[in-house]
Design goal:
With 288 residues, the chain is an all-alpha fold. It has helices at 2-12, 15-55, 91-95, 110-129, 133-155, 160-174, 182-207, 214-227, 232-253, 265-286. It is 69% helix and 0% strand.
Length: 288
């Protein structure tokens, strides 16, 4: 603990070192988040197929097990193994000009964009909160939201592997009062889950359709556990307004089908992070 306190003091006494350290850490973790975003849904589908086979008493499909570390990353087109120097955040993509070094297949720009997003958000936390136990915890919060946003956008899945640990971690860190007090965090988790759960059942009873998934309930519960129940109305309003605006624009500009499901997790995650950074200012404006 004493070493950590010394590190915090050193970083706070040198703003350049503080921001640089957080940005570099954000870029490196952003590279790992690309792996999580790509592989975790595949790992879940593989696990579900295994469970379905056991339930139906059928032979499980023969397939190579996927984890976050295995198999090694390769080019999906030619199978070229990604070398360590080809996996440096942002720089490798620029050096390779966005192409595989072996077959020149284009590498999606989303990979460096996710790394840059992680770096920028970590810089914002360093700038706003400085080096502290609170900001260290908020880095984990931020990285989890990035992963959930992209996974839900790709697959319309909010994995329990992330949402539930995120909720419990929020309650644990707020038992020490790092972000808010424990009472607010506890009722934030309860209110976050029950609010969307109630909307889900009211919509289903009225229309016979499911308006959202259970992952959305768990994500809002996690946001409540981190930020407290007082901030939940802001998160719900922000996410609803942004989600509705995007849906209307998508239908008007690109002809998105009206009945096509749209993931709500990315808007909850974005609203949660905005509430973290500027929630007090928003509350002040909202309450006059």
């Amino acid at each position: 603990m004493q070493e950590i306190d010394i590190l915090i003091s050193t970083l706070n006494n040198n703003s350049v070192m503080l921001c640089t350290s957080y940005v570099v850490l954000g870029l490196l973790v952003g590279s790992f988040l690309n792996v999580v975003i790509h592989r975790l849904p595949k790992m879940l589908h593989q696990e579900w197929r295994q469970q379905a086979s056991e339930f139906l008493e059928q032979k499980a499909p023969t397939e190579a097990r996927i984890t976050l570390s295995k198999p090694n990353s390769t080019c999906p087109n030619c199978g070229h193994a990604i070398k360590p120097w080809e996996n440096i955040p942002v720089l490798s993509w620029l050096f390779l000009r966005g192409k595989c070094s072996n077959c020149s297949t284009k590498i999606s720009i989303r990979y460096p964009l996710i790394e840059l997003t992680s770096g920028f958000m970590c810089f914002a936390i360093a700038y706003s909160f400085g080096a502290s136990y609170e900001s260290f915890a908020l880095l984990l919060f931020t990285w989890a939201l990035i992963a959930l946003t992209m996974i839900d956008a790709d697959t319309q899945i909010l994995p329990d592997n992330i949402t539930l640990p995120l909720m419990w971690l929020g309650l644990i860190i707020n038992s020490f009062g790092l972000v808010t007090n424990f009472e607010s965090a506890f009722w934030g988790a309860v209110a976050g889950y029950l609010s969307l759960w109630s909307v889900y059942w009211l919509f289903k009873l009225a229309t016979g359709k499911e308006g959202m998934g259970y992952g959305d309930f768990k994500l809002l519960a996690a946001l409540g556990a981190w930020l407290g129940w007082e901030i939940l109305p802001i998160i719900i309003i922000l996410s609803s307004v942004v989600g509705a605006a995007y849906g209307i624009l998508a239908m008007a500009i690109v002809g998105r089908e009206k009945n096509k499901p749209m993931p709500f997790g990315p808007y909850l995650a974005a609203a949660g992070w905005i509430a973290l950074m500027w929630g007090e200012q928003i509350k002040t404006i909202w309450l006059g």
